[in-house]
Design a protein that fits this description.
2 copies of one chain form a homodimer. By secondary structure, the first copy, chain A, is of the alpha/beta class. Helices cover about 35% and strands about 25% of the residues of chain A. Chain A contains 11 helices and 13 strands. In chain A, the strands form 2 sheets. Chain A has a 9-stranded mixed sheet with strand order 5-4-1-8-9-10-11-12-13, sandwiched between helices. A 4-stranded mixed sheet of chain A has the order 3-2-6-7. In chain A, helix 3 runs parallel beside helix 5, helix 6 packs across helix 7 and helix 8 packs across helix 9. The longest helix of chain A has 18 residues. The relative contact order of chain A is 0.15. The interface between A and B is large, with 39 and 39 residues.
Chain lengths: ~300, ~300
């Protein structure tokens, strides 16, 4: 199956207790594309960058086999830039700078050659743009949406429309509570699924991830990461691993959704080990498989005797 | 295998968003004994109560088949009483009243007929008393200790001695951080295991439980409870389910420790559904088995394909 990824391509400045980087390739579409490229092909990217975008970063995406027909360089300005600082416990962060630049005028036009894509990954962008993508694709097998608190509070109506039209919503526990107004995650899930999506995945960081349909279907452990260097992009990477696995296997059964959640967990775990996409781009298939098997063993509950 | 339980027997007054009870049977030894009695026999209790202790509550323990030779009624005063109020999110609570009463002079004398017990459950009491119990037992196969923040900050030295002498320490994530001074749970576990215990179980409430030895061995999901009525005793009940399963099976292999953790999870899940021990005392074996199987399915990660 083919994967279509729509989202931001950005440069990030990151400060964390582990160190800092002034400018590294980031953005939701970048992380989703790179992560899913380890599992499947074709991965088709729709995004926009500015006149400062480095050829080496374009090369990085090409080296991962990402189809860049929908990747546009807007010479009128600079690339979206975000700068943030993580707190000591890595669980919170402050935004220090946001320069939308050319991303402010991002209009996701889906190339004809992308329109028949099977799996649609709507990275975290303005909800009305996510809807615009859904209006252009012709034959999706599975549509997946990520969002964040900024849109939950600031673009509620458009977000509800977008959510009502997708198959899978992937958010974290804090966002699930904000979106539903509930506290207990099972209650959150019931409330959110009433808004439309058949499946809801709640990411809980170090506590793993949960997959809900009409009830909790699957509870996945997190991969234990000894040292978290940079959490940026972990959620996007989760979506990339999830979608990439489904595309590779061509199977969207509930059993295989479990494997997809575990692949999302595995890829996200690698992502946070180094700054930006550094750890992801040096990954091997055997490393991914090894962590899948480790997680499987970690969560294994033996039969009663 | 036989189980020895040493801890508090108390009356609790509980206020929660779900309602309130003025006086219900509680205490660590009560919850541990009742929970383990659903899985194994004999369960031997050492505890003390006062002159106000109700015959019906003694009867409740007898009905569960708990051996009460070590259960003493001290006519000089009243039973330990604790009163608390849970916050709206059920994740915190305030203590409104603590009357130690006869429990202030609790001296755990282990009857001769109990001394050869195989599994020793040291419920949450003063650490020096936990050590005193360890000094009296003659042939333990597995010693298990629970504690709380009160002792971590207030009786550190005695607690470290107690911990150094047990096989399994069971604490929650907040206690693990306090005891180790670390933030990341894997770091907490490494630090705490250096203090002596071969195994460490970290209870994470709605996020499940983790079993560590020299590394993370097992990550168990929580059982999804739609409505939590009263969290009191959930941790003690976890220990009772854990110890009860090990006793029933007579097997302390690492594979079977997983089953024990899941039984602890299952029993603790029932515990919180009603006030006090109410839900526990109406349990059936088939209900326990059904939830075990549900948890097994919930956490199942299919093989890669």
């Amino acid at each position: 199956m083919s994967v279509l990824v729509v989202g931001s391509v950005a440069y990030d400045g990151i400060e964390a207790p582990s160190g800092k980087v002034d400018r590294t390739l980031g953005g939701s579409a970048t992380y989703i594309s790179v992560a899913s490229s380890f599992l499947t092909s074709p991965v088709r990217l729709v995004g926009t960058v500015g006149n400062d975008f480095d050829d080496n970063d374009r090369q990085l995406l090409e080296n991962r086999g990402v189809d860049l027909e929908g990747f546009k360089k807007d010479e009128s300005g600079r690339t979206f830039f975000w700068k943030g600082r993580y707190h000591d416990d890595m669980n919170g962060r402050d935004t220090l700078d946001t320069q939308l630049n050319v991303f402010e005028h991002f209009d996701p036009v889906i190339p004809d050659s992308y329109k028949d894509s099977s799996i649609i990954c709507l990275g975290n962008i303005e909800p009305s743009l996510q809807v615009k993508v859904l209006d252009q694709v012709t034959n999706p097998k599975l549509t997946i949406l990520d969002t964040m608190n900024f849109w939950i509070s600031g673009a509620r109506e458009a977000l509800e429309e977008a959510i009502s039209r997708v198959d899978v919503l992937i958010i974290n526990d804090e966002e699930a509570r904000d979106l539903s107004g509930k506290s207990n995650l099972a209650d959150c899930a019931a409330e959110i699924r009433n808004k439309g999506p058949k499946y809801l995945i709640i990411k809980k960081g170090e506590h793993g991830a949960q997959l809900y349909s009409d009830r909790l279907l699957f509870s996945a452990p997190a991969f234990p990461i000894p040292t978290i260097t940079d959490p940026t992009g972990a959620g996007d990477t989760f979506m990339g691993g999830f979608a990439g696995w489904l595309s590779r296997s061509g199977d969207i059964s509930e059993e295989n959704l479990r494997r997809a959640v575990v692949h999302g967990t595995v890829l996200a775990g690698f992502c946070v080990e180094k700054f930006g996409t550094e750890r992801l781009t040096e990954l091997s298939q055997s490393e991914i498989d090894e962590r899948y098997d480790t997680l499987q063993k970690l969560g294994e509950i033996p039969q009663r005797v």
